[in-house]
Amino acid sequence: MAPYVFRIRILWITVLTLFIPVVSTKYRKPNIVFLLTDDQDVKLGGQTPMTKTKNLVGDKGIIFENMYVSAPLCCPSRSSILTGKYVHSNGAVNNSLTGNCSSPYWQRTQEVKAFPTYLKGQGYSTFFAGKYLNQYGTPMAGGVQHVPPGWDWWIGLVGNSKYYNYHLSVNGTLEVHKDDPKTDYLTDVIVSQSPPPLTDVINRRATSFLSLQNSDSAPFFMMLSTPACHGPFTPAPKYQNNFPNKTAPRDGSYNKHGHDKHWLIQQAITPLPNDTVKSEDQVFRNRWRTLLSVDDMMENIVNILQTKNLLENTYIVFSSDNGFHLGQFSMPSDKRQLYEFDVRVPLMIRGPNVTAGRVVKEQVMNIDLAPTFLEMAGLPSTPGQMDGLSLAPFFSSASNQTWGRSTILVEHQGEYHENTPGCPQFRRQNMANCNNHCVCEDSWNNTYSCVIKRESAVSPSQPGRRVKYCLFKDNQNFQEMYNLDMDPYEFKNLAVTLPEDKKKVYLNLIEHMEMCSGESCHV
Ligand SMILES: *[C@@H]1O[C@H](CO)[C@@H](O)[C@H](O)[C@H]1NC(C)=O
Ligand SMILES: *[C@@H]1O[C@H](CO)[C@@H](O)[C@H](O)[C@H]1NC(C)=O
Ligand SMILES: *[C@@H]1O[C@H](CO)[C@@H](O)[C@H](O)[C@H]1NC(C)=O
Ligand SMILES: *[C@@H]1O[C@H](CO)[C@@H](O)[C@H](O)[C@H]1NC(C)=O
Ligand SMILES: *[C@@H]1O[C@H](CO)[C@@H](O)[C@H](O)[C@H]1NC(C)=O
Ligand SMILES: *[C@@H]1O[C@H](CO)[C@@H](O)[C@H](O)[C@H]1NC(C)=O
Fold first, then answer.
1. Global pTM exceeds 0.85
2. Is-catalytic flag, 521?
3. What structural domains does the chain harbor?
4. Which atom of ligand 2 lies nearest, measured to the CA of 205?
């Protein structure tokens, strides 16, 4: 027997050595760069200052105009991005540990099946730098020693977005940063520092990682997650005086009262107090300024990829975790609301075989990113637990888009504290994020689910309308409905006059979506 086995082995070795070089020169898995910003809206011009990103990514690829998030809040949305699952499926309902934001339970049950773990299985070299989940790195979440599975290079910000004076976990070791603009600005660019100093931050770290990549190394996945343009909205020194006269947009629902909306919106003061207007305008300018550093980072990444001859085989994906408002329906400034400005974000994708210069109007979501990355990396099918769908069918203009979903779900669980310092009228009222006029952005019963549905076409020339229908979990079962085609600013709440039998159809759909998982979410 032995010589026979031996001969088969030799035969196999011959076959393998003949095949391996041919296969490997013919196809190399694509690299993927994913740049995620924090709180960047798309409805109020949040993308406008990022002209380089528009040129280098959007115009060279696809702009998705109707990109939604599963929740208008950082940690739930980010948890959805990582797992490819709706909020009700992955369980991270708010920004607290008790709401499973980076909780040990979430790490044990969800993080172990997040998309980076599959990329590792596909032979990818993986890199993360920036804000992860709001509770990441805190003692109860495992401290800086906790490096989420699937990441080779790990540069994770402890806690929520900051620009200076923060802690990082660098491969599980604490690195303390102060406020030297030259070395500590978290988003910052490489500028003229070469070789990069040891204290380099997101962009500089990314640069060091990319310097090691070439067309013979393993394919890589790089996720860059900036604090911009989240509060405290600190621009880099070189941009602190840009846009001196720019003000928040005054169109649409700016400074209008949401008289037919949920009570939380109705507590807003209209017209907006002058000091609120002033502070919103300042926040608006500073958000744009912080984004200029992100735009520089994108340019830097693209330049490096080009120099290293890697650009053609690299997908670049740009998005944000949730939107933002500044004075819409007279609400001061924050997210957490069900309107388009808070639940829609930018999405642009360029890469191999992505037809350039297209705008897609189909409704897509943050839960679709994980399945998309996995298809890019060659995984034969989306893992069954993921609720999202790969966006690859949109990449080629030739493919006749077989998009298997007309309904998406947005879920928010209102955050609250028992008392509100400085607002005695809200004692024991369970409100949150109140400003100096005691106008609050959240409350225990600002808890809702919305379906956003493209209804069936009336005729081939008349596509179905896009409708948003929302149900609050408060003690009046408050409902809101908007026709997004006819009323893009969501002025008129159609639920007020909708007959009960028509309401029932939407309420049944919400009930189905709130319990959906994997396939059953694709309706
Ligand atoms: C968070 O995880 C715990 C398990 O520790 C689970 O029982 C709980 O339902 C989760 N919380 C939420 C709000 O989903
Ligand atoms: C982090 O870990 C990766 C993978 O082991 C390694 O290549 C890299 O040099 C490490 N980075 C730092 C800053 O220690
Ligand atoms: C901003 O406004 C001031 C005062 O109205 C004016 O002097 C200045 O030229 C404006 N700056 C820009 C860049 O438009
Ligand atoms: C607020 O600003 C407007 C326009 O600048 C001004 O007419 C009004 O008097 C101001 N209101 C207060 C209370 O200062
Ligand atoms: C691009 O399309 C070509 C032709 O269909 C295919 O061979 C190649 O694998 C594709 N590249 C990627 C990265 O999908
Ligand atoms: C987050 O959700 C958990 C679980 O529902 C809840 O106990 C906690 O109070 C919430 N945190 C805030 C700030 O609302």
1. yes
2. no
3. 28-395 (3.40.720.10), 411-521 (no CATH)
4. 13
